[in-house]
Design brief:
Shape: elongated
CATH architecture of the largest domain: Beta Barrel
Helix content: 25-40%
CATH class of the largest domain: Mainly Beta
CATH superfamily of the largest domain: Efflux pump adaptor protein, beta barrel domain
Number of helices: 6
Radius of gyration: 57 Å
Number of domains: 3
Distance between the termini: 101 Å
Strand content: 15-25%
CATH topology of the largest domain: Elongation Factor Tu (Ef-tu), domain 3
Number of strands: 12
């Protein structure tokens, strides 16, 4: 049969393809597979032509369509396009390099704001706290109050002292007038006793008056003169108490002005028992005080951080400040709001590096010296007039881009080369 003939031929071909050498090792025998069993049609090989089955008419292979000859042409166009794009990319890169370099960027920058520790210059017991922690306050809003009883009593005492000083000065003015009257009377007494003394002196010289009468007249004259001198000294003391001007107004007298100053100081201390916000901001760390706590003078109660006066403190490297100048425009990007930009200007650049103000400055004259690039503090003024932007907070990290309007230009070796060529020409 044809099937048996086919199987026999395969077996004979297999036997011929693997001869056994007498001297060599004998090949291992394999168990017969299913395809080697008689009466089973052979398995079609994948990807090969279909096997011819016994009892079936032969089938024709379908003709494959010829491939179009477009691949070499497309590769040729791609190669020319790449060759054309290479010089364009080089030209674009060179133009970007030559015209670039005008922006100085640094991420060593942080937002700063006015911060103040709220305190008062008078001591007292905390009576009321008018704000909460992290509350927005306006300038002049009451933050907390101290017990003001002792300060009110001090103010009343100072006002009473002003009245006492006024009365004393008026009494001095009255004493001055009375002293002037006494001095006039004493002067009249001196004149009278002087005439009496001269009369008794003449009578004694003529032996008409007794010596006793003469001595009495002389004693009366001396007493009158001493009294007049004493009254003049008292009058001078009154004038001195009236600041050398008996007609001075009471309100201009030093004692009165001192009393008024004491009254004003008492009023100031009473006013400082009510602590107000010096500027608009956010009160923080408020729970550090509570009603009933004794707060010494100048002790910080809590902190107030400004919200309407913000700036950026950046610390670029010294090698990055080559073309940076005050007044140049700045673009600020906050890490918290990466899609929003703020604008500002370079307000100032520090005259010294930060390490110059350190407690232990660098000792560059020592043997173990390593050069380190220094950082120079730079301050950027922000434009925060747009209230629709997100809120900025002190301490936020930002990225500062300063537009120096500087162009990098050609590389140094090209500049030197062109300059040498011009010199030869």
């Amino acid at each position: 049969m044809p099937a048996d003939g086919t199987i026999v031929s395969r077996r004979s071909e297999t036997a011929d393809a693997s001869p056994v050498s007498r001297d060599g090792p004998r090949p291992q025998s394999k168990p017969p597979s299913l395809r080697d069993q008689p009466g089973r049609p052979p398995r079609e090989q994948p990807g090969g032509p279909p096997q011819k089955q016994p009892g079936q008419p032969p089938q024709k292979q379908p003709e494959r369509p010829a491939k179009p000859e477009m691949a070499p042409r497309s590769r040729r166009w791609l190669r020319w396009a790449l060759f054309a794009l290479l010089p364009l990319a080089l030209i674009a890169g060179g133009y970007w390099y030559v015209t670039g370099g005008g922006v100085m960027s640094t991420d060593d920058a942080y937002i700063e704001a006015d911060k103040v520790g709220i305190s008062t210059d008078v001591s007292g017991i905390v009576k009321e706290i008018e704000v909460r922690n992290n509350q927005q306050v306006a300038a002049g809003d009451v933050l907390f109050r101290l017990d003001d009883l002792q300060f009110r009593l001090a103010l009343e005492r100072a006002e009473a002292q002003i009245g006492n000083v006024r009365n004393d000065l008026n009494a001095l003015k009255a004493n001055y007038g009375d002293m002037q009257t006494q001095i006039k009377q004493a002067q009249d007494d001196v004149d009278y006793y002087d005439r009496e003394f001269r009369r008794q002196q003449d009578l004694a010289a003529k032996s008409i008056a007794s010596q006793q009468t003469f001595d009495t007249a002389r004693r009366n004259l001396l007493n009158a003169q001493h009294k007049l001198a004493s009254l003049n000294q008292q009058l001078a003391a009154i004038v001195a108490n009236l600041n050398g001007d008996p007609d001075i107004p009471v309100e201009r007298h030093p004692r009165y002005r001192d009393a008024v100053a004491q009254r004003d100081e008492a009023a100031r201390q009473l006013d400082h028992t009510v602590v107000k916000a010096p500027f608009a901001g956010v009160a923080t760390n408020v729970p550090s005080i509570a009603p009933g706590k004794y707060l010494p003078a100048s002790m910080t109660a809590f902190y107030l951080v400004a919200t309407d006066h913000l700036w950026v403190d950046s610390n670029p490297k010294e090698t990055e400040l080559t073309y940076v100048r005050p007044g140049q425009p700045v673009t600020v990007t906050v890490d918290t709001y990466p899609d929003v930009q703020w604008h500002g200007v370079v307000e100032s650049i520090s005259p010294a590096a930060a390490q110059e103000f350190s407690l232990l400055p660098a000792q560059n004259t020592s043997g173990n010296w390593v050069k380190v690039v220094q950082r120079i503090p730079m301050r950027v003024r922000l434009d925060t007039s747009d209230k629709n932007r997100p809120a900025l907070r002190a301490g936020m990290s930002v990225v500062v881009d300063v537009d120096t309007a500087h162009r990098r230009g050609l590389p140094q070796f090209l500049t030197a080369l062109f300059g040498r060529a011009r010199g030869k020409s």
